[in-house]
Predict the structure.
Amino acid sequence: MQETWRWFGPKDTVSLEQVRQAGATGVVTALDHVPTGEAWPAADIGERKRLIEEAGLTWSVVESVPLHNDIKTRSGAYRRYIDNYQQSIRNLGNAGIHCVCYNFMPVVDWTRTNLNYELPNTAQALRFEMTDFAAYDLFVLERDGSKDSYADDVVARATERFNTMSAEARAALEKNIIAGLPGGEGSYDHDGIRTAIERFSKLGNDRYRANLIAFLEEIIPVAEEAGVVMAIHPDDPPFSLFGLPRVVSTADDARALLEAVPSPSNGLTMCAGSYGARGDNDLVAMIREFHDRIHFVHLRNIKREDDGSFYESDHLDGDNDIVGIVNALLDEEEQRQGLPPGRCRIPMRPDHGHALGEEKSDERVRPGYSFAGRMKGLAELRGVIHALEAVRR
Ligand code: DNO
């Protein structure tokens, strides 16, 4: 597999030199300065590529070219935004960058309630706690119909939790949920998120899925021509939030998308942490079923609880069978040996890491994107890959 590293561009606290020292050879990055919906200029793509290559690395994957909400809702100026998206794909293909990660989550991108969840070894992890999320939805946002989204025992626990929270704790929870996490789309304030939720909640799963398929029908032919593969990232977490539609959470969801537009350019990001947050997703079986449509991999582990809560555990210690997952991916890589260089190895990145040591109190460090924590994850994963490769020889 190709070891890659997410880099947030020249303003990232982690330098490309450090990325190389960590042992990655590929970079995963995006032009975050281009407003969502606008076409990515060829010159800006070229400049980013130059920086990466000067550091002795390769730009392996774009994560993400985000979709404007008008495309997701298929309303407003969506036609113009699709034209722009097609142009971004062409410009990336021309620059020789051939893998694009994106997502179709409504309103909020990846979501957590606690960004400093202290583990027994004092490292800090990211956590999604259903009680906190429900407390926010029910009592801070006071969303219409929110009570119907939760089981009675969750409502009872959320009520108790909310009543014991200070004003600061409530504000911090709101910030964690709606202000937007690194690389995520959508940063809202209290009123902004209400309006966005109302806009999407009318759609329902069927219409929302139809909107995604309509987008794919318009994008995939352009991607094919440009030599680009699209890799949709699953919903994180993989269940409905705020009563909104979710269409990339399960194997059935992934299968429906792949079948609707049966092109090799229409593929998946196998995010182990996102799909793995549901106990009914069998990740090894999904890798075997979707094999040649998996274009990018996020390797991360989680520990699940019964009510949908989870936290991000050490890369090799959690409910995901990382060794089995890597083994299935190595099987798939064997099938790709005839492909051109650069396409026969599946790019993977250690997705998130714990905050360790001094990075715990460094406010500049992006939640989940510490240097040391990700380096630890990458080193552990590298060990798994090497060991499996050795026994397979
Ligand atoms: C979080 C990331 C997501 C991901 C997007 C893909 O760490 O995995 O923000 O980049 O959802 O579009």
In short: The radius of gyration is 20 Å. The pocket of D-mannose is lined by residues 63-64, 101-103, 109-110, 183-184, 233, 298, 351, 368 (CB under 6 Å). Residues 204-226 form the longest helix (23 residues).
